[in-house]
Amino acid sequence: SDGSIRLHQMTSEYPLMQWNDSTNGQPVIALQWALTRPAVFFVLDASSNIYIWDLLENDLLPVAKQTIPSENVVTMALLGEPEKTNGLLGLALAKEAGQIDIQYVKKKWAVP
Prior knowledge:
Blueprint: E1 5-8, E2 15-19, E3 28-33, E4 40-45, E5 49-54, E6 64-67, E7 73-80, E8 89-95, E9 100-104
Antiparallel strand pairs: 1-2, 3-4, 4-5, 5-6, 7-8, 8-9
GO molecular function, one term: dynein heavy chain binding
Organism: Oceanites oceanicus
Protein name: WDR60 protein
């Protein structure tokens, strides 16, 4: 609820990494690991901002931020096929009014 993100290892109750205020204090609505690239994850906050984290590029801050204008995004899911190396990775964004928006991610964050 405070915008912090914690990375845990299954064998420990203490986080390996913790990023406080990673969404400028906005609650985290959804967090999804990339299906095709293990070091990348996506965060959706309550203000309809999507943050892209690539831990191999920068483990302190997100590498990109995209605001979804016009309507609140209530959740997201990732689309892709991990067994294929074509670099296709998409985000399905569910909006408050019931529409679904599909956006594709740049290959640099999708290719294994």
